[in-house]
Each structure stands twice: as C-alpha cells, then as structure tokens.
Design goal:
This protein is an alpha+beta fold. Helix content is about 35%, strand content about 20%. The protein contains 6 helices and 4 strands; from the N terminus they run H-H-H-H-H-E-E-E-E-H.
C-alpha cells in the first residue's frame, strides 16, 4: 500500500498544479481569483489530502478514523508532519472533491473492442438503522443484491482489458443492475 506513496503524491501534485495553471489562464481576462480564507491554515496541501484519501480507499481499514489514527498520525508521521486531527481532516476533504473527480476523469482509458462491467453495492448504513438515517435520505434507496438487502448506492463501472476505467455511474440502491448499461456503453 505504501510502496508507491511518493509516486502517488507526485502524480496528484503535478495534476493539481496543471489544473490551477489552466484555470488561471482560463480566467486570465478577469484577473486571478482571490483566495478566500475559511478558518486556520490547513497544514496539508491539496495533494497531501488527496493522497491520504486514496490511501484510505486502498487500505483494509473499515473506517477512516482508524486509518487516520493508526497510520497517518503514528506510522507515517514523517511524511505528513502537519497532519490535523480526524475532525479537521474530514472538513478538509470537502476542499479536494472536485480535484479528485477531475483526476479520475483525466485517467479514464480509451474504449477498445472489449469492455467489462461491474456493479458494487455501496451501503450507507446497516439495515436496522434505515429509519434513523438522514445524511443521504433523499438520494440513497433500499435495494436487493446477490448478498441481500442494502440501503445505499450502486456503483456501475466499465473498464477495458488494460484495467482502465472507461465509464462510471452511481445510482440509488433500488435501480436494476441492467438499467444503466445503455448509458454507460
């Protein structure tokens, strides 16, 4: 998991600098956009935050809090010296969601002759807590999968023979697995 930590950071950092340069060139006629300050300084740059979020997704930890307390704040402290506490880090991740989406879109592969499609359930909460759940109440739905009932979303992923993502779609949990195929292919 950590064998390519610096390489991943450099990819995100180079991509972030290129996007900022293109964005400022696009807005060049109006001048640079002034940065708004909200609260104290972050302590981590956008590339650090994106690297940690991707590492968490690649790890086998069940929660980000366990990953943050066990790996970031203890084992990998030399790499992330100014890493904030868990609560502050969660607020900082909202800052880089667009950057992550653009990075994912830039890494999408070309469409060859052979595509593979996969569906993964993304549960939001346990089935016993559906009535109390309010975070994504209007977006998530209860649906049946091969492993049972799930309240949440389904991620439909199309990838090619080189394991490059070709298309991606997120649907509520009650959508049929075959419904988004036409839109994705």
């Amino acid at each position: 998991m950590f064998d390519r930590l610096v390489e991943r950071f450099c990819e995100f950092d180079d991509f972030g600098q290129n996007i900022r340069a293109e964005w400022e060139a696009y807005l060049g006629a109006d001048g640079p956009v002034p940065e708004r300050k909200h609260g104290p300084e972050a302590g981590l740059c956008d590339s650090d935050i994106t690297t940690l979020v991707v590492l968490d997704h690649r790890s086998r930890f069940k929660t980000f809090k366990t990953f943050d307390n066990g790996i970031v704040l203890q084992l990998r402290r030399p790499y992330f010296r100014h890493a904030p506490c868990y609560e502050r880090f969660i607020t900082l991740t909202k800052r880089v969601w667009a950057l992550r989406a653009l990075f994912l879109a830039s890494r999408m592969g070309q469409k060859p002759d052979i595509d593979y499609i996969d569906r993964t359930a993304l549960p939001v909460c346990h089935n016993r807590r559906i009535a109390k759940h309010r975070v994504v109440a209007g977006l998530a739905a209860r649906g049946k999968t091969s492993r049972g009932w799930v309240f949440g979303f389904k991620r439909h992923l199309v990838f090619n023979h080189r394991r490059e993502i070709v298309a991606l779609k997120l649907t509520p949990g009650n959508v049929s697995d075959t419904a988004p195929v036409h839109a994705l292919t």
